Amino acid sequence: MTQRVYVPSDATACALGADAVAAAIADQARTRGQDLQLIRNGSRGLFWLEPLVEVEVEGKRFGYGPVAPEDVPGLFASDFLTGGEHPLALGPTEEIPYLRAQTRVNFARAGLIDPLSLTDYQRHGGFAGLRRALALSGQAAVDEVKTSGLRGRGGAAFPTGIKWQTVLDTQATQKYVVCNADEGDSGTFADRLLMEADPLQLIEGMTIAGLAVGATQGYIYVRSEYPRAFAVLRAAIALAREAGFLGPDVCGSGRAFELEARLGAGAYICGEETSLLESLEGRRGLVRAKPPLPAIEGLFGKPTVINNVLTLASVAEIFARGGAWYASLGCGRSLGTLPMQLAGNVKRGGLIELPFGHSLRELIEDFGGGTASGRPLRAVQVGGPLGAYLSADELDTPLDYEAFAARGAMLGHGGVVVFDDSVDMAEQARFAMEFCVVESCGKCTPCRIGSVRGVEVIDRIRADTDRDDNLLLLKELCDTMEYGSLCAMGGLTPMPVRSAVEKFPQDFGA
Amino acid sequence: MGAETDSRITAVLDRLGDLPGALLPVLHEIQHEIGHIPPTAVPAIARALNLSRAEVHGVISFYSHFRTEPAGAHLIQLCRAEACQAVGSRELEAHVKARLGIDYDATSEDGRITLEPVYCLGNCACGPSLQIDEHLHARVTPQRFDALLAGLEESR
Ligand SMILES: Cc1cc2nc3c(=O)[nH]c(=O)nc-3n(C[C@H](O)[C@H](O)[C@H](O)COP(=O)(O)O)c2cc1C
Ligand code: SF4
Ligand code: FES
After folding, report:
1. Has residue A232 been placed in a domain?
2. A396, A420, A444 — which closes off a domain?
3. N or C: which end of chain A has fewer CB within 10 A?
């Protein structure tokens, strides 16, 4: 029987040499006259083990990693194709504790399947949700999403069912579904991983959204920093269309849904939903004032569902297994699973999907194994560049939207960036302001000018010039930005800044 | 604008001009084909898409991805964002600038290398990250950078 060998094609895996490993495996196989089938899967998201090579032995997958091209002859010599012993052997992949301890819903297929195989996708439950949705009325479909308790995974955690209801209730000749795949937050890569490893799940979720609200056209707005995700999506869309899952007659239902992937162009602000819509329409990404809500007047002035990649992907499983099943995961008002992304100075960085309610400490210590440098952890930034810094004393905070809000922090898109004790928090606060200078859309003064002033004030504090006066000035500036900005770019930049000043006063000369 | 460039731009406009919200796809395609968006192309784009020149120009200058001048033979994009900072990207940044003798948004004197900042490449679990001509590299130390640079010199 032909042996199956899996080598990830994910961006991080390739950045760590997966292509060279794949070539070395093909080369060795040729030399040894060994018949094998090399499959480029996505990634399991266990990035510290990449390149993670897997072999299939009697239907079970065994992992080896991290593999360098030099290791490949040794792997063959150890009969890795039949699961042989080797210093890089990890045993059955699904039993690696980091993976086994997760509850994978969005990422159940990630790394398991060939991202561009409709057969693989369906063999692992794909399109079951769409088939169910096709039999439901729009209202019944929206109700299913409400039952699931799903809240937007892009950052603001708005209830998805309520947003969809508004679009369903708004009469129009044309409606749209837009997927926000701008994923600009530092420390996040879940959208990228999903698009590269299981793109059909997103396509399925968007199609269900279209059927539910009566939209016939969808767009996926992918940031230009993700060329690989963009290419995979385009290929997946073409496959789905060819097989009749997209197009004028979705699965022979007589109902239409078309989908197109578009590229952003290097602007963080285009992750903000109204800026994204401007960009899709071919303009500068200037934030629009709300109202009108995009659900009522969105893309090209038409009612538009705009959701994050993970939100839309979740819909596929919600329809396959039922909204009530999804709501049985999680706690309080944070239901379902949250794919967290562990990054920065951490030993075992990667994607960790868990029901809400676990603690930050479990994530960083149990999964992550502490800092990569081995030095004491000092700060953790959660929720991207607009998220608060937490101190080492706050690691027991449960991963739950409300628990984070109660601390003046936010979960956002689930990025967790770990810093060791070499971090200078005044430098981090300065960067938060500088990032706002670079990425502000420029529409309102508190954000555009306030951030420039913010950098200057922090520079004076760091230079020990009139420190107390400048700290007071910084505080006032943060208030002005928070209350006077049109969107959360200017409005939330104070969050990392204030948290740094308040929790790490010694770095500001106190 | 040379005749050949001219015809390539016309071809892009013919192919993509009818898309709803066509401007970004058109600009991407022109930059992909030519390497940059020649300012002399603006009137043709504006005409084809029924926009003012100011609108087209405004869009090109708003987005950091678009360039109006050719880049060096190689484009190096260094991640400046937090997850990479946490694993030493500030030291890497200082090293790269010193090594190339240029700051961000500049091209080395020999026209070989353009250096740009980026804010996250989605490789945050394995930083510091940088991208060379659409090839992503992980865990880039100063030594690793020197080796990558030597690789570019060899391919000359
Ligand atoms: C400055 C800024 C950047 C944002 N970036 C993103 C992003 O990259 N991806 C995303 O899904 N949402 C982002 N958002 C949130 C979106 O505005 C919006 O809330 C989201 O797309 C709605 O989808 P959801 O309900 O599924 O989360 C950003 C918001 C702001 C203010
Ligand atoms: S807060 Fe900043 S990014 Fe948001 S609209 Fe105002 S200027 Fe633009
Ligand atoms: S922060 Fe550098 S790759 Fe994400």
Report:
1. yes
2. A420
3. N
pTM score = 0.98
Three-point CA angle A432, A434, A436, nearest 5°: 75
Q: Reduce the DSSP state of residue A304 to 3 states and report it.
A: strand
A343·B124 Cβ contact <8 A: yes
Ligand 2: centre distance to CA A287 (Å): 6
Question: Nearest Cα to B139, choosing from A220, A4, A68, A444?
Answer: A68
What residues are paired with A342 via a beta bridge?
A350, A416
A304 plus A345 within the same structural domain: no
Length of chain A: 510
Residues 6+ apart with CB under 8 A from A486: A287, A289, A443, A444, A447
A121: left (phi over 0), alpha (psi -120 to 50) or beta: alpha
d(CA B150, CA B132) in angstroms, rounded, equals: 13
What pLDDT band is residue B5 in, cutting at 50, 70 and 90?
Answer: confident
Q: Which of A184, A267, A194, A188 is nearest to A232 (CA)?
A: A194
**Model pLDDT, residue A267:** 97
Mean pLDDT along residues A219-238: 98
Query: Which residue range(s) make up the domain with A23?
Result: 3-100
Same domain assignment for residues A382 and A485? no
pLDDT of residue A1: 63
Residues of A in contact with B131 (CB under 8 A): 225
Contact criterion met (CB < 8 Å) for B85 and A227: no
Whole-number mean pLDDT of chain A?
Answer: 97
Question: Cα-flanking dihedrals φ and ψ of residue A151, to 5°?
Answer: -120, 150
3-state secondary structure of A56: strand
Please judge whether B119 and A186 are an interchain contact, meaning their C-beta atoms are less than 8 angstroms apart: yes
Q: Are residues A71 and A202 in the same domain?
A: no
pLDDT tens digits, B93-107: 999 999 999 999 999
Average the pLDDT over A365-392 and give the result: 98
Distance from CA of B79 to the nearest CA of A (A): 10
| Residues from chain B contacting residue A224 (CB–CB below 8 Å) | 28, 65
C-alpha to C-alpha distance for A397 and A406, rounded to whole angstroms: 10
**ipTM score assigned to the predicted complex:** 0.97
* Atom nearest to A447 CA in ligand 2: 2
Q: What is the CA radius of gyration of chain B?
A: 18
**Could you tell me if A144 and A183 lie in one domain?**
yes
